[in-house]
Amino acid sequence: MASKTRVVFMGTPDFAVPSLRALVDAGLDVAAVVTQPDRPRGRKRELTPPPVKRAALEMGMDVLQPEKLWQSTALGKILTVEPDLVVTAAYGQILPRELLEAPRFGCINVHASLLPKYRGGAPIHHALIRGEKEVGVTIMYMVEALDAGDMLLQRAIPVTESDDVGTLHDRLSVLGAELLTEVLPDILSGKAQARPQDPEQVTYAPNIKREDEKIDWTKGGRALFNQVRGLRPWPVAFTSWKGKPLKIWRAHPLEASVMAEPGTVIRVDSAGIVVATGEGALVLTELQPAGKKAMSVEEFLRGRNMEPGERLGDG
C-alpha cells in the first residue's frame, strides 16, 4: 500500500486505537491525529488524555485536540496537511462539509453497528439493551447526516449470554481494524464499491442518559437482564434501596410465575437476591452500594439486612 498516501485519523476512546494502529501497520502516512481534549477522570478529577492521544504520542504522531472542530484553528491545520483520506472511529464530533469534501479518497468511518441499525454514539449499548442476537462493524463513507453514508464493508459477530458492553467493545474494536485493513486497498485503488443504506431499516442509538440507567421493575426479567449487561461496565444500571442508589452490575433472569408487585424482594441468600419484575424475576448477583465498590451478593449481605417483602426502586 502506498506509503505516500497521507491520512488524517480522528478518534477518541479505546475502540479507535486498533484502527489507528491498522493504518500504521498498512504503511500509510498518518500525518495527523485528531481527538477530543483531555478530560477530568476519576474521583480526583485528574485531567486525563483520551486513549487515542496516548497511542498517537507513543508512535510519535502530531495530535490536535479541538474542543469544537468547526470553531477552531485545527480545521485549517488539517486542511493544510492535504490528506488523501480521512478515517474516523468514535471521534465524537460532526465533520464540517469543508473537511468532508477535501480528501481525494473521501472520509470513511469505522462504526460499531450493522448499519442502518443503531446510528449514533452508543450502538453497542443499545444493541444489547434491545436484545440483539448479533452485532457488527460497518465501514462507510461519511456524509453530513449522522452515520448515513454509503456502506463499503460490513461484518457481524454473534452475541452470547455472557457478553456485555465491555466484551463486545473489545471484539468489535479489533473487528473494525480488520475490516479497515481489508477495505483500504480497494479505496486507494479506486475499486471500492459502496451500497446505500436502506432508509426503512434505520434505527438510532443516542448517547446513554441517566434515565436509561434506571431500572423499571415493571419490565420483564429478560428485558432487565439485557439492560444490566447493556450498561456494564459503564455507566451501570441502578435502582434504589432504603432511599439510596444501588448499582446492579450482574444479574440473570428467572422465568417463573411470580405473585408479587414488581420491585419486591422475594428471596435473599448468598446465591442471589430475587426481585419480582413485570414478567418473571431478576436475580441480582453483583451489586454496588452508594460510596462502595462493586461486590458479590454474599459480600453485600455481610452487615446489610435485606428482607423478603422489601421494595427496590421506591426511594
UniProtKB/TrEMBL annotation:
Top-level taxonomic group: Bacteria
EC nos: 2.1.2.9
Keywords from the named record: Protein biosynthesis, Transferase
Residues reported in the UniProt entry to bind (6S)-5,6,7,8-tetrahydrofolate: 113-116
PROSITE patterns according to UniProt: GART
SUPFAM superfamilies documented for this protein: FMT C-terminal domain-like, Formyltransferase
Ranges where the Formyl transferase C-terminal domain occurs: 207-304
Reactions catalysed according to its record: L-methionyl-tRNA(fMet) + (6R)-10-formyltetrahydrofolate = N-formyl-L-methionyl-tRNA(fMet) + (6S)-5,6,7,8-tetrahydrofolate + H(+)
Listed GO MF terms: methionyl-tRNA formyltransferase activity
EC top class, as a word: transferase
CDD domains (UniProt xref): FMT_core_Met-tRNA-FMT_N, Met_tRNA_FMT_C
UniProt domain Formyl transferase N-terminal: residue ranges: 6-184
Record-annotated membrane-spanning stretches: none
Family statement drawn from the similarity comment of this UniProt entry: Belongs to the Fmt family.
Functional summary from the UniProt entry: Attaches a formyl group to the free amino group of methionyl-tRNA(fMet). The formyl group appears to play a dual role in the initiator identity of N-formylmethionyl-tRNA by promoting its recognition by IF2 and preventing the misappropriation of this tRNA by the elongation apparatus.
NCBIfam families xrefs: fmt
Protein name: Methionyl-tRNA formyltransferase
Organism, as annotated: Salinithrix halophila
Gene for this chain: fmt
